[in-house]
Amino acid sequence: MMRRDKLVMAGLAIPSGIRNLLLAIALVDVIHRPSVMSMFAAESKRPLPTAKAVAPTLVTVTISPEARVKAAATEEGPRVLQQGEWTEFTLVIDNAAGITAPLSIESDQLMTSEIDRDRDHWLRLELQPPGPLTGDEKEIRTVRLFSRDAGLRTAVLNFNAGQGTQDLGFRSDVLLSFKIAK
């Protein structure tokens, strides 16, 4: 239980009525947490909510103040996909330029249609939510990948936010390897 002198030492100016209420809530939380939690779970007849698993980060995209797009893979080694199933990854965007144009992801390995049988076109990709960037300095998007083929495959993904935004050192290309299970 937090004592009054600790509240004063923390530099908090809390009226005594509110302080007493906070201390009572903290005491009830410590003493009765298991019974209160089980009461709510029994009342709703469903399990308590848990945090949704976060998809692994695939690429970090950096847009410089000069509006140049640079991309970097976040981990070494192959990413795991399941043949014929969509797999979600996180895309982290650091947008120092505040660009609001759509972020495009291009690749020579992308299938042109669902019936594309070209050996080099084995990947389908969706960026969610679709549409333009918000202009916020930090933005998180989801990239969904679908592999037609199984085995070890590589793809070169190119990130841009319109004509002229590719990095001058061609750092907007990312080489990724995938291990695709049947």
Concise structural overview:
With 182 residues, the chain is α+β, with helices and mostly antiparallel strands. It is 19% helix and 35% strand.
Q: What is the number of helical segments per DSSP (H or I, 4+ residues)?
A: 2
Number of domains: 2
Helices and strands: which structural class?
Answer: alpha+beta
Tell me, rounded to a whole number, the average pLDDT. Answer: 82
First and last CA, distance = 55 Å
| Secondary structure: helix percent | 10-25%
Q: What is the general shape? A: extended
- Please report the first level of CATH classification, the CATH class of the largest domain: Mainly Beta
The CATH topology of the largest domain, please?
Immunoglobulin-like
Strands of the widest sheet, in order across it, are 2-1-4-7-6
CATH fourth-tier homologous superfamily of the largest domain:
Immunoglobulins
Report the portion of residues in β strands.
Answer: 35-45%
Which CATH-level-2 architecture of the largest domain? Sandwich
Given as residue ranges, the uncertain stretches (5+ residues, pLDDT < 50) are none
> How many E strands?
9
Our Rg estimate from Cα atoms comes to 24 Å
